[in-house]
Amino acid sequence: MLHMRIAKRQEPLGLGGSCLVLFLALALSLVLSGILLFLGGTPPLEGLATLFYGAFGSRWALEDSVLKAIPIFLCSLGVAVAFRLKIWNIGAEGQFALGSIGATWVALSFPDWPSFILLPAMIGMAMLAGGVWGLIPAILRQKLRTNEIIVTLMMNYIGILVLDYLVYGVWKDPSSYGFPMTPEFSDNAIVGKIGSSSINWGLLHCVVLGTFIWGFFKFTRLGFELKVSGDNVAAARYAGLPYDRLVILVMVISGALAGWAGFLEASATVNRLQPSIIVGYGYTAIVVAWLARLNPLNIGIASILLAGLRVGVENLQLELQVPAAFGGILEGLILLTVLAGGLFTHYKIERRRME
Amino acid sequence: MNMLKAVLVLTLSLFISTANAGEKEMKVGFVYVSPIGDAGYSYAHDVGRQAVEAMEGVTTSYVESVSEGPDSGRVILNMARKGYDVIFATSFGYMDPMLKVAKRFPKVAFLHCSGFKQSENMGNYFGRMYQARYLTGIVAGEMTKSNIIGYVAAFPIPEVIRGINAFALGVQSVNPDATVRVVWTKTWYDPATEKEAAKSLLDVGADILAQHQDSPGPQEAAEERGVYSFGYNSDMASFAPKAHLTAPVWNWGPYYVKIVEEVKNGTWKAGSEWPGLAEGIIGLSPFGPMVSQELRDNVAAVKAEIVAGDKKVFAGPIKDQNGVVKIAEGVVAPDADLLGMTWFVEGVVGTTE
C-alpha cells in the first residue's frame, strides 16, 4: 500500500532547504500544541499568541528570556564541545552544581576582596571544580573503559548531593531559621546588571565564550583535530591524532563551561547558594545542543528560544490557566519534530514506482 | 494533507477572543510550588483561591510548578507588572525574591506563606499545622501494634521537623514505647519516590505511615500493604479508602477571603500571622471507619484543649534524641524557636541532616 520510500540524497540538503525543513518542523510542533491547547479547552491561537507575547512580546519579556538563557547557553556550549568528539557528556547538571559550589566557596571565604579580584577568582574556582567533575568520568573512561554516559549521569546526583550537604550543613546561614541556604554574597561577589536592564553582565561572558569556542573549532589545529576525531575515531587514530588526550580535553572544557554557568547563576541571579539553584539547566543544555546541531551561534538562538518557551508558559498559565506541564510538552514536541526533520538533510522521500 | 487542513480550519474557527476583564476588578495572584493536581499542598491553596474567585469584583489567577529560585522572582514580578493587587506566594523559597519585588511595587500587597521576612507591604502567614499533627499522633500511638510508626518526609527544614516532633509527642502522649522512624525523600512532589520511601518504612516493620509530601504516594503504598496511614494537605481517603485514618488538612479559603477583603477596604497591614486549630485554618479530615468512637472522642477532647489554649504542643519538659532537655519543665517554646526548629525529640529515629 505504501507508495513512498525513503532514499538517500546524492548531496546533503543545502542551507535554504535546511531552513525550510526547520521552519516546517517548528510549524508542525506549533500546530500539534495548538491542537493540545484546543483539547484542553483553550483557544489555540490566543494561547500561542499569549505564549509568544510572554516570551518575546515586550522588553521585560525579552529580558526575562535572555536572562534565563544565559546558564542554558553556557551549559549547552560545554556539552556541544564534548558532543563534537562524540563523547556523550550528560553531566552538565553536576558540573554546573560543582561550579556554583566552587564560586560560592571563594565568595564566602574572601568576601572583602575587591570585585576585580574576587570575581575572576570565583570564575577560576568554578571552572576548576566543574572541570574536575568532567575530568573524573573522562579518566574512568580511558583507564577502566567505563561508559561516560552512565558515569556523567551518576556524577550529577553526587554533585547535587554535595551541594545539598554543604547548604544543609557547614555553609548554612545561621540567620535562615534552619532553612538550607548560604548567607547572601557580599556586593563584591555579585555580577552586576547591564545599565537599567535586568540582564546581568553574564550575557557578555556568553558572547565572549561563544566566540572563543567558535574560533577554536574554526581556526585552531586542536579544534580541527577534535572535529576530525569526532567524525571518525578509527581514521583519527590511524592519522596519529591523540584521541585519548582529546577526550580528556573536551570533558574538562565541557565541565569548566558548565561550572562557569554555575558561577553566574549563584553570583548574578540567586546571590547565594541554595538547593533550588539546580533546576535542570544541565539537561536542557543537551536538548539545546542537539537542536542547534552543536553550532555556537545556533546554540545561542536555541537557548533563547527554549528559555523563552519556559518564560512564556508562565504567561500562558497566568492569562489562560493552562497547566504548567504544557511547557514541557511543547518543548518535547519541538525537539521531536526538529530532530525528525533532520532526516531530510541526508534523505528524501520518493514516490515508489508501482509494479 | 487534507487532515492537516481540516485541523487548521478547525483551530482557526475555534479561535475565540475573550473580552478583557473590567478595569475595576481586583486582581489576586497565587504562586504555587507544585502542580495543583497534586491533591496536596498546592491543591489546598488552590481550593482557597477558588473561594477568593467567588468573591464579588475579584478575579484570580495562578502559576503552578514554579521552582523556588530566580523563576519565582520573575513570576511574582510579572504579576506585579500586570497590575495584580494582591499576590500570595505559597512556598518558603519565594521569600527573598518576593521581598525584592515588594520593594519595587509599594502599592501591591504581598503575602508570603511559611517565611519570616516582612516589609511595609509584605506580610507573612502560615498555619500551625503541628497542632493537627499532634492529634494524628494520638491516633497513631493508640492504633500501632508493632510500635513502629513510619514518617515519609520531604526536606529537613523547620516546618517539616516541627511536624514530625509534634506527631511524635502526640504518639508518646498515649504510647511511650512507640518510635517514629523518618525517611527523607528530598522531594516535595515525586509520587514514585515517595511511594518507594513509604515501602522502605513498611519493610522495617512500620504498621502506620504518616507523611509530609505533596503527593498521596505513601497512602498508595499503605493501601497495597494493608496497613494504615495518614494523608496530608487534603482529604486523601479516595486514594486509599482502606488505609486512610485521617489527614491533617489546610483550610485556606476563609483566611484568603479575609485578607483580600481587608486589602479591598484599605485596612490591610503587613504583619505576621500564624493561626491554628482555633481559627480553623487547619483541621483533620473525617476519620476512616477503622478509628473507634472512643479514640475519636479522645482526639476531640485534646483538640478542644488546644483550641481553648489550655494545651500547648511544645510545652516542657521535652528532650531531644540525645536525652538533653531542650525545653525545660514549665516552659512553652516561643514561636521563634518553633520556626527555627532543627532537632528531633526523643523517640524519633532518624537524623535532621
Could you describe the 3D structure shown?
Chain A is globular and about 75 Å long. Chain A has a single domain (43-321), classed as Orthogonal Bundle (ABC transporter involved in vitamin B12 uptake, BtuC). Chain A starts with a strand and ends with a strand. Chain A has helices at 15-39, 44-56, 59-84, 92-109, 115-144, 148-168, 202-219, 221-231, 233-238, 243-270, 281-291, 296-320, 325-341, 343-346, and strands spanning 4-8, 347-351. Helices cover 71% and strands 3% of the residues of chain A. The model of chain A has no long low-confidence stretch (mean pLDDT 92). Chain A has a two-stranded antiparallel ribbon with strand order 1-2. Chain A is an all-alpha fold. The longest helix of chain A is centred in the middle third of the chain and has 30 residues, at 115-144. With 353 residues, chain B is an alpha/beta fold. Chain B folds into two domains: 25-125 and 252-279, Response regulator (Rossmann fold, 3-Layer(aba) Sandwich); 129-247 and 285-349, 3-Layer(aba) Sandwich (Rossmann fold). Chain B is 38% helix and 18% strand. Chain B has eleven helices and 16 strands. Chain B has helices at 2-13, 41-53, 70-81, 95-104, 129-143, 158-174, 191-203, 217-225, 253-265, 293-308, 335-339; strands at residues 26-31, 58-63, 86-89, 109-113, 122-125, 148-153, 179-184, 208-212, 228-230, 244-246, 248-250, 272-273, 282-284, 318-319, 325-327, 348-349. A six-stranded parallel beta sheet of chain B has the order 2-1-3-4-5-12, sandwiched between helices. In chain B, strands 10-9-8-6-7-16 form a six-stranded parallel beta sheet, with helices on both faces. In chain B, strands 11-13 form a two-stranded antiparallel sheet. In chain B, helix 2 crosses helix 9 and helix 3 (70-81) runs parallel beside helix 4. The longest helix of chain B has 17 residues, at 158-174. The model of chain B is unreliable at 9-23 (pLDDT under 50). The chains are: A mainly alpha (355), B alpha/beta (353). At the A-B interface, helix 1, helix 2, helix 3, helix 10 and helix 12 of A face helix 1, strand 2 and helix 3 of B.
